[in-house]
Amino acid sequence: MPDLAPPPAADAAVDSRRAWLVAAAAFVVGFVVFGTLYSFGAVFEPMSAELGGSRAATSAFFSIAGLIFYMTGALTGRLSDRFGPRVVVGAGAIVMGAGLAGTACIERIEAGYLTYGIGVGVGASCAYVPSLALVGGWFDRWRATALGIAAAGTGCGVLVMPPLTAALIEGHGWRVAVAVSGAGFGSLLALCAVVVRPPRRAPGVAVRPLTRVLRSSQFLRLYASWVLATTALFVPFVFLPAFARDHGASSVAASSLLSVLGGASLVGRLGIGVLVARIGTLASFKIAVSIMAGSYVMWLASASYGLLAAFSAVLGLGYGTRIALMPGVLIELFGLHNPGVILGVFFTAGGISAVLGPMIAGVIVDHTGSYRWAIAFALAMGAGGLAAVASLQPDRGSVLDGNGGIRDA
Are the C-beta atoms of 31 and 153 separated by less than 8 Å? Predict the structure, then answer.
């Protein structure tokens, strides 16, 4: 049944106990979704060995799931706006839990494309986009802090789940590990579906039509910035450990640079409240993008492990801050109406970047025999992302009212 009715007045207020429950649910959803996706590396080797698939065939599990996750956000966000987040997040819990459970039972690689690739991809999209899109509308004074907490769930999932999954595989095998994940994560997402609900909205608020939002120069510039800056971000995610090994770091030390990046991103996600309180959401977002762009200069000039660790920390700080601020920027520019579909359409930018960044950087490395030109490519993309939003301001012909609507100035 559609969950469109406002909650009772005592529970509906911004910055209320209900609001923090919604933020907590978004944290858990982010933990589950990204913890599942990024722990695939721990499952990859034993699964490939048992099923007899090539590395390329097995890695397609993750590629299919990631592509569907990023590219279906507009659909799941639209469904959430229309039928209510409980329905869509609940469907995500069922589909993702069933997909993981089914993956634990497969006997052929091809079956995993359906159970993991489609099941996890669709389930993750149903759960993540609607839950994150809700958070900003439940807060006013504490919006930046709440969005930072919600965004921190993804970072915690990436840090915690891969080693836990590896330990479970070592003790009980990959099938048990995936089955346990399906049961546990499906249950957690189902609990989140009970909690999430749309915030109460004042009646009679005029809103900017959705098509006008998606075609506006602000949205297009923000979208272009996200594609460019995230294309740059995927270069170190894929190539930084190899670069460090080429400069004398051990495999463990090289891989640890990604942990430094992830840890710094958590600091950025959780610390944005202070920055936003001082200079505002949009200005803070621009600073985060500029930190990311400038960090690639550090990477280009780095040769020692210490400098690479410093680069990872600076990039992670900017990356985490930008991630946490993004929903707030969308609210500041476009209001609180249609939050699911706006966030979902914007989310497709990450899918484009996931394809472009590693692929183009890989071609550059193959043709030049050096990582330096790939780093220069990342620097150029980061600078382009900054240029796209450097002068971005809300539309002077309209202003955001207190209820999240757009009215003429």
Answer: yes
**Nearest-5° angle of CA 15, CA 19, CA 23?**
120
Go through the chain and tell me how many residues it has. Answer: 409
User: What pTM does this model have?
Assistant: 0.79
- Both tokens of residue 174? 């990959």
Taking a C-beta distance cutoff of 8 angstroms, is the pair 106, 115 a contact? yes
- Asked whether the beta carbons of 406 and 398 are under 8 A apart, the reply is yes
Task: State pLDDT tens for residues 21-41.
Answer: 999 999 999 999 988 887 777
In this structure, are strands 406-408 and 398-400 parallel, antiparallel, or unpaired?
antiparallel
Q: Which residue has the tokens 């346990």?
A: 180
Q: Residues near 389 by Cβ (< 8 Å), separated by ≥ 6?
A: 221, 222, 225, 285, 286, 289
The closest alpha carbon to 41, from 193, 164, 222, belongs to 164
Distance CA 140, CA 153 (A): 21
pLDDT per residue as tens digits for the range 76-91:
988 998 899 999 999 9
The string of pLDDT tens digits covering residues 100-133 is 999 999 888 889 889 998 999 999 999 999 999 8
What's the rounded Cα separation, in Å, for the pair 387 and 341? 26
Q: CB–CB of 333/218 below 8 Å?
A: yes
Cα(382)–Cα(390) distance, integer angstroms: 12
How much is the average pLDDT of 243-250?
87
Domains of the chain from N-terminus onward: 9-195 (1.20.1250.20), 210-408 (1.20.1250.20)
